[in-house]
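hiii so my PI (J.) wants the whole complex modelled not just the main chain, which honestly fair. so below is everything: two entries, each one labled with what it is. i double checked the lines twice but i was tired so who knows lol
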Amino acid sequence: MDVEILARVQFAFTIAFHYIYPPLSIGLGLVIVIMEGLYLKTGNKIFEHATRFWIRIFALIFGIGVATGIIMEFEFGTNWATYSKYVGDIFGSALAAEGIFAFALESGFLGVLIFGWNRVSPKVHFFSTIMVFFGSLFSAVWIVVANSWQQTPAGFRIVGEGMNARAEITDFWVMVFNPSSVDRLLHVWIAAILAGAFMVLSVNAWYILKNKHLEIAKPSFKIALVVATVFSLLQLFVGHRSAEGVAQYQPAKLAAMEGHYDSSSSADMYLLGYVNNKKEKTSGLSIPGGLSYIIHGDFKAPVKGLHAFKPGDRPTQINTIFQSYHLMVAIGMLLILLSLFACYLWWRNKLFDRKWLMIAFVWSVLLPQLANQAGWFTAEIGRQPWVVYGLLKTSDALSKTVSANQIIFSLILFTFVYIVLFALFLFLLNRKIQHGPVDKTGKDAIEEGTKRDNPIMNHSQ
Amino acid sequence: METFLGIEFTVWWYLVFGAVISGYAILDGFDLGAGALHLFLNKEQSRRIAINAIGPIWDGNEVWLVIGGGALFAGFPVAYAAIFSAFYVPFMVFMVGLIFRAVAIEFRSKEPMLWWRKTWDVVYCVASIIISLSLGLMLGNVVAGIPLNRDKEFSGDWLSFFNPFAILVAITTLALFMMHGAIYLTMKTENRLYAKLRLLANNFTIFFVVSFVITTLYTLLYIPHLSDFFRSRPGYFLIPVCMILAIANIPRQLKRAKYRYAFLSSAATIALLLIMLALEVFPYLLYSAGSPANSITIYNAASSAKTMKILLVIALIGTPLVGIYTSFVFWTFKGKVKLDEMSY
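here's the output for the full assembly
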């Protein structure tokens, strides 16, 4: 097989697997901050149990996120050496900033978060929780800035020619606040918070269905529901802004997202559909002129279509982009409906009465995850054939010294490792959830053992 | 070329990168070493204490690798691209080692069954050994040089990475980390486990000294150009002398049961070793064996002056912050390991 395809598949596979975890840590981070804050404010043990429970789950998720994330940092060099030379001056500084400002903060305080309960005061512990949450937010900042620069490059100039060409920073802040950074960062943050919130909803809905730990599950569910409702509604606006940005700066991607070919006609907005890229035809259920209206405020206005771009300058997997984009939007809408309906029932005091709704919430954990993946596939496949939009083609960005066999070797290796890792993750996650937020048997047993040689234990009891 | 205190920005960034790599070797070095000697501990309780001795901090230690990777990418993208595409296979093995090690630490304590724990103990130990060896192997090749073409990309066969010099460096690295890890564990343990680790610390010190001497002799005999720097500048001989003193101080402090001093000495040994290597290869980041004209130096690999300035500002703001919270975390978990309900 072709080295380019292999390198892309390998990178996509490792990054997609990695991206299951960081959004969860951002989202759970926020929920844990709220829960621990409530515990400190009210002194209510229920919130303490919930905080400790979610920190245990957070630790598991964070651990896998770190292990799979370190690889990403080096894969730019292993798979995309030419790209690394080309963007190093720009991308590298964002990555260095992430390491020193975000990741160090997060990992440093995580130790206190997990192991420090008996070693620091509750306030210092809460401070550590906030720092871990901030660390995860900051790390999203730098990586999204770096990726956004690839989508909408700004604040740079090109130096050198051919193999030695590279982008150099001319203005750091223009590079950081390139046209798509802010919209995409907000979009990613909110999506991450939704991933965490729906995980909390899912686990607690399961407890409620099983009639277990109700005293903790019900308040936790409500906290997460508030977070889910606020942020799924916010996502509607932020997501819309992001699409406007794509329309302005990456028209080829936008055209692919709606399967729009002809630049002289108005563009439809599809609810469901299928793109036949060979016949260059899109069929399905659509609002005629919907896309034209969203961009130009006029149902008749023409929108730049795929024909406006040379075949070598536009993405080829139009149907994949179309489907993943529509999947993301559909899930976004579903999350809004689900949270609003649950809020309505809460207002009528019937939140936990409908069994089907609780079952729906148990499964809802998968939805933000699917939407996150679909969104990134849209963004990244939609940018093709460019790795840096308009400047560097993916096919030119490869490591010239790496052979197809080496990539196949690493692809097989990582497929095997990640399958094992994912199985272990699900197994342990399941154990922790089954075990529940209240640690009765274990706690008594350990108290006996630790009181003897750990006088610090006593003050927290 | 812009300068600060008479030193070029590029050289400053090289110093920052060197400091980060030394920090990584010192910090992750002891937890990797603790992992590599894990199977020398026999009892379940001992192994548990050993894991918890690194439990709250190994994650933070690994961050230095991430910062180091970012520092190389940002400051010397040409070197970053050449090194990681050249060392594709060993680096992937290194990465898989890191994953399995993280997983082993995390998962070991989650089930009480003895077979479960023993399996993860083996994974943890083997992964730590593989990580240390592959780090050493890559370091050995970077120091001795690998063939590069005119585009400054690797033009050899990856099997050539397994040359005698690189293998010797790999073994020395492992020995160094095991010594460092054993000394760290003596600071964190008590009673019989402590007595056992004292013995191990002594043995690994001997292991390190022997492999270090063999590697040095091999270098002097077969790769003489690596010692050119010290031959032409005898004043710098102070550095290897300091390093030998630091190494000699380790068994002395071990005998006096001053483990903190022994630990500081082994940390100093690691730092001085890397400083020595850096002086020997400066200004090369990746020497091109066979065709020196294609070598990657800190000058032809550097980012623009503007980026260097930005990076130095980032480092200037970031380093004190990292220092503050690293010390806070180490201070929180200071002293001997106590197992509690949050332990692994």
